[in-house]
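step 3/5: co-fold with nicotinamide-adenine-dinucleotide
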Amino acid sequence: MKALVTGGAGFIGSHVAEILKENNHEVLIVDNFSTGKKSNLPKDIPFLEIDICSKELNKAISEFKPDVVFHLAAQIDVQKSLHDPAFDAYVNVVGAVNLLQACQTNKVKKVIYSSSAAVYGEPQSLPVSESHQLMPLSAYGVSKHTVEHYLYVFKNLYNIDYSILRYGNVYGPRQDPLGEAGVVAIFTDKILKGQSPMIFGDGEQTRDFVYVKDIARANLLAATTSSSQVVNIATEVETSVNDVFNLLLELTNQKELKAQTMPSRSGEIRRMVMSTKKAKREIGFESKFSFYEGMKETIEFYKAQIDF
Ligand SMILES: NC(=O)c1ccc[n+]([C@@H]2O[C@H](COP(=O)([O-])OP(=O)(O)OC[C@H]3O[C@@H](n4cnc5c(N)ncnc54)[C@H](O)[C@@H]3O)[C@@H](O)[C@H]2O)c1
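step 4/5: write tokens
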């Protein structure tokens, strides 16, 4: 297939582009490099420096003529979405609608959309399934969910197929440790430098951590299997922040390092773990990497990045 990957210079998008290329698909990346990096770009994959909110996007799609679009470009910073919700909505909603219009004009067959556990808000029951109520607690959660509605509308009006993948907390190589996004990236970077990471509250808050290579494989599966579906992409394993810290100490052999304890942050969800039954049924997805295996690969990546 011909596959366009938006946000392909980012953390997850670069892995999606890579797995597509490995499976002999023709790939083009579109990114404005706002958080993405040239060094993330997989070798031999062409890219265009384009903003998804711009008119150039339509031109790029009309020239490349993709069969499938993997839409990962987004403003992903939850705190930024709270401080500037208009900017968040501009990139995440207007950008996505601009993309869908270009897909309609150019007869793209399918869009694979990267959504998030943030659409659920505070879990009312665990594990969270796709039928859980949707009460996002941040502007980011609202913008990610809003695009899900647009996908439904474009399917009904213009027959553009879609898959909505709601990810748990994604971690792995190329995640930016300086960003707000990932506790794993931040802790790994700090611990490898012999510094103490900050743990907010008692550290018993939990998340469903899913390895980025599993996410990339889920995107590939979604492109070739089920239609018009919403599925969680996670592990069904609940891991606490303390578990992350302790495993990192064990794997880096730094058992004496202590975390800095900080007051808990308001608005933080206490527990999160997602059901993946539907993903297994609809697209044949099950995570292959245990947290231990994923963390080992992640540590190797950050070790190679750090200038000791
Ligand atoms: N990281 C996670 O844990 C997680 C969890 C759930 C969902 N997601 C979703 O996965 C997707 C990828 O996230 P990520 O963690 O790789 O983030 P990232 O910031 O590394 O990647 C986003 C990419 O989009 C690009 N981009 C941003 N605005 C753009 C614009 N206007 N035009 C063109 N490109 C633009 C950035 O330069 C970057 O390369 C996002 O849609 C995000 O909402 C991520």
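step 5/5: annotate
The chain has ten helices and 13 strands.
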